[in-house]
Please model this.
Amino acid sequence: MASTRVHLVLVHGLFSSAKVWKAFETLIAGDPELTGRVSVHLFEYDSPLGRLRPDRRVAETDDIADQLGTFLETELADAERIVLVTHSQGGLVVQRFLARKLWNGEGAELARIGGVADSYWEALEGHGRAWRSLGLSFDPFAVCREALGAHWPGGVAVGRRGGRELGDGVAREPNQGFLVHFDDASREYAEDLLDTPLIGQFAFNLYLSVPPSGGETVLWRHRWQPEDERYRLPASYGYDEAVVRGAESLEIAPRVGEALLIDPRYFHAVRPSSGARRVALGFAVGLASSGQLVTWA
Ligand SMILES: [Fe+2]
Model:
């Protein structure tokens, strides 16, 4: 992995310029651990204060997003691994760039951008140690997988990436709720996340504790479209609830011991809890083209 040079593309923010990255660039250049492994590229675009009109913002962002696409295609034509780092408005530019690529059916061109961070694997080791330290006489995620696969002819297994087993599950306590969002492995990861291509994706949650009020899971019959990015909340995974305005919805207040399997590519949210903790064990479930169900977290 370390043998492939990473091309770091820095995208500055609004009312700013590539000069803003100077200190960052100097730090990277002076870090012996990164020497020969990282090449820094500055993507510069014009963002004059006086010319910007609020009603033109989307159009301007689209233009800059297209300029970024051209930059990656020309300046970095031979780069195998690209990481985009953004500041402020730069994040919106990259979001628009990715959305427009996908919308135009050019998602495959994004294969050199993104991936699974090395820190994921390090975190996974800590996660394994923490679960083992509980001294449980059973593996709760294995129990969930067995129950899920009991009537599924293709079987269930923890998914692998590059031959390595991914995380088997997480315990989540979203007492504050989750904003309206969607999860889609094929959009979040530029390449196939798992070694086996997926033809469907679900989210599994088993509820261990639920509050007397709140904590409902809400699911809308609406899947992400590029226009929905207008409702994306700044620096957040979530969207303004207006993104699902008018869409048919389903609200479920799960009970302890119940499990929910939803298609998380539809927008969904969790309402804030009050009166008690809301704790669930969960993992993603993919339907592999082989017919097997594969789980990961
Ligand atoms: Fe989700």
User: Anything to note?
Assistant: Residues 181, 183, 203, 264, 268 surround fe (ii) ion (CB under 6 Å). The chain has a mean pLDDT of 85.
